[in-house]
Amino acid sequence: AIPHLEESIPIGNIPPKKAKIESKKRILLNKSDKKKERYEKKIERQAKKDRAERKSKQEKERNKKNKKGSKTESDGSLKPHTKSFTQTSKKSVTNFLNFFEGKRRLLLITTPKADNNMYVQQRDEYLESFCKMATRKISVITIFGTMNNSHMKIDHFQLDNENPMKVIEDEDLVDQNLINELRREYGMTYNDFFMVLTDSDMKAKQYYEVPIAMKSVFDLIDTFQSRIKEMEKQKREGIVCKENKKQSLENFLSRFRWRRRLLVMSSPSEEDWAYSQQLAALNGQACNFGLRHIIILKLLSVGEEISGVLELYPINGSSSVDREDVPVHLVKDIRNYFQISPEYFSMLLVGKDGNVKSWYPSPMWSMVIVYDLIDSMQLRRQEMAIQQSLGMRCPEDEYAEYGYHGYHQGYQEGYQDDYHHHESYHHGYPYRK
Known about the structure:
There is one protein chain. By secondary structure, the chain is an alpha+beta fold. Among the domains are: 88-237, Glutaredoxin; 251-390, Glutaredoxin (3-Layer(aba) Sandwich). It is 48% helix and 16% strand. It has 16 helices and 12 strands. The chain has helices at residues 2-11, 14-75, 78-98, 117-127, 130-135, 176-185, 214-221, 225-237, 249-254, 273-282, 286-291, 328-337, 368-375, 378-389, 396-399, 404-413, and strands at residues 105-111, 138-145, 150-156, 194-198, 204-208, 261-267, 294-300, 307-312, 322-326, 346-350, 356-360, 429-430. A hairpin with a 4-residue loop joins strand 2 and strand 3 (150-156). The longest helix is centred in the N-terminal third of the chain and has 62 residues, at 14-75. The protein is elongated and about 135 Å long.
């Protein structure tokens, strides 16, 4: 019996008790695994949430920076122009031209730099014709520089009774987009000297690749229908521009400084023998005067009969001449300034720098002496090089009497800056104060 009982112990009650414990353990383990799994999932979800929040925060930071940068740009001077012209650049140029349309005519000029020889010649031409520019309602727009780097200036020639014009602000004068659109509008897309004339409808009427006498420009403008009506109206209303209003000697002389050379002739009367001889020597020399940028200033008579005449020759060498009366007070001031006696004939050559280069107490039978002196100057040699490249020269027969061969050689070789050889001239003497 006892052995049976001993055998019955491992087979009977003990194993089920152990199984129950094992089962409990498995249940606990399962619960622990599930809890662990839930915890891990929770951790993973939290990590995902954190990553999403960090990403969102970074996005917000980036957007905030971009927004701030955009605001900074809008506060600057470049963005308004860029935005304006990328969206409505054509409209902006149209608006710009609308300021002039129906009111003004334009002379648009491009030049690589302010001291460009061709530009300087053209500028000097129109500056000497203020009244004629003003009565024709001309505004000059000059663009300096290259296509990639330009600035412009605007000069309005107006009569005294007209309200001063201002078309754009100063910062717009350096707006590359506006300038480039303006260039393209009128085909001024090169970096060289170029000029365009428009009528009051802003349509181009003429193109110029080289400097031209303003008389030719004025003659063309006077054929426009708009100008014909304008002239009739100005005539009815008695509108005139007086070039010779009271002005100082300094203002008068500054008009020509660095632009023209003055040949000043003074005589006690128009019948004076020396003066008559000098006039004969000047006859037929319009082309030579024009190419050398010479203006003749005649100071005549004494006492109550004092008078003065200014003769302007086109720089392209044409034979036409414009004459202006010089007021009496200026005739007196000029004689005093240059220490010219009104009792005797005398002639002075004044350079572009405003200084007297030579004086002539008696008539110059041959103007070649004066021409040689002028052609020996550094500035004149630069002018000759430009004129030669443009094919600007006087007819040979005009030089037959005045040493054309020597002058032509001056074009080829240039003259030395040596003024001593002029001292031996019989009629001409270097001026010394």
